Amino acid sequence: MIEVFETNSAEETEKLGKKIAENAKPGQVYTLIGDLGVGKTVFTQGFATGLAIPESICSPTFTIVQVYDSGRLPFYHFDVYRIGDVEEMDEIGYEDYVYGDGVCLIEWANLIEEILPENHTRVTIEKNLEKGFDYRKITVEQI
After folding, report:
1. How many secondary structure helices (H) and strands (E) does the chain include?
2. What is the secondary structure of 52-92 as a DSSP string?
3. CATH number (domain holding residue 22)
4. Burial of 132 by CB count in 10 Å (0-12 exposed, 13-18 middle, 19+ buried)?
5. Which distant-in-sequence residues (6+ apart) come within 8 Å of 133 by Cβ?
6. How far apart are CA 111 and CA 44, in angstroms?
7. Range of the domain at 111
8. Which of 25, 28, 72, 126 has a CA positioned 20 to 30 A from the CA of residue 51?
């Protein structure tokens, strides 16, 4: 199933992330794909809100994974932008998170496609400057 959403502000992108997370279930994996500056972190902040996580969320670019246990489900937020080799994911216990009881959201997941679980939800965020600086096309696809 593929759903396409259009947002015209950071607030709308954040609200969409929240709405999607409100329906998240244990063991689900969401992959987040999009260019630099497209709104992946804004979407993730909304996603965390949808899981009732009170902490502020920022991308774990240098730590690769950030764990939040304070919401209705454990939330494992990955940012694999700086990953040099897929084998580095083993060192941080990737499989324990992905096949655990929480919800995973993986930014830049296209860089580790070969180790993604067979079933996951791909979220792609794209800009279209012809439709405005803040316009985003967000495609949500069950894989």
Report:
1. 4, 7
2. T--S-----TTTSEEEE-SSSS-EEEEE-TT-S-TTHHHHT
3. 3.40.50.300
4. exposed
5. none
6. 18
7. 2-142
8. 126
